[in-house]
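New to this. Help decode the following:
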Amino acid sequence: MDPNIGEELYKVMDALVALRLDLECDPEIPGETLVLSAEKARDACDAIESATESIKHLAATFGDDAPGEDPLH
């Protein structure tokens, strides 16, 4: 496997783990209520952006067209 591809995959996994941690519910809050601080919400957005950029880089590496102005996802 190309080392650059492995590096990008690690970046995606790191971003997804960070996202999971940022969105973890506080066990002290009952029910289905989810409370996120502004900092955790910003961190979650940054993690999504990082994973998206790495996936776009991987898609380009494999020769897939990058999404246009109106991507499906």
Summary: Helices lie at 3-22, 38-61. The first helix runs from residue 3 to 22. The chain has a mean pLDDT of 76. The chain has two helices and no strands.
